[in-house]
# Entry
Amino acid sequence: MPDPRTHGTIRVAAAAGAAGLGIGWMRAADSLADVVPPIEIEGIWLFPPVRREEREWGVAVVSRRAENDRRRIYTVSYMLVMRGRERGQCKVVVEEVGESPLSVVHEVIRGVQERAGEAEPPIEISPGLWYEFNEETTGGEIEADAGAPAIEGFQ
# Structure
């Protein structure tokens, strides 16, 4: 069986501005894969990036499968320089923020929303948007187009 930490292909942004695509999100996805094996990612929720002056900031909440029907929750944040001499430089921070039963994951995400001061709920994306899954990377454990399960109350 292949090593699940081998994240292989990170999808290239096909359309700038689409939820979860763009340079900042792709660098966030790459950094996340260094900490969390993509095969273990169950859900990704994105808050809209904020652009001010020459920088862009983005925050995502990630749910990872754990033991006993529990989920480990991570935040992934990035700051990308959009213009100027430092254009393209990016800082990404991946932080494990808690563990909870599946039934309260949406409450944890709401807590992140409140702490971030976001008025709108995050947008849920499939891990397949950031990572390419196939028989070689998963050992045949999931389908090539497997997506994250929807959690009630989020889009």
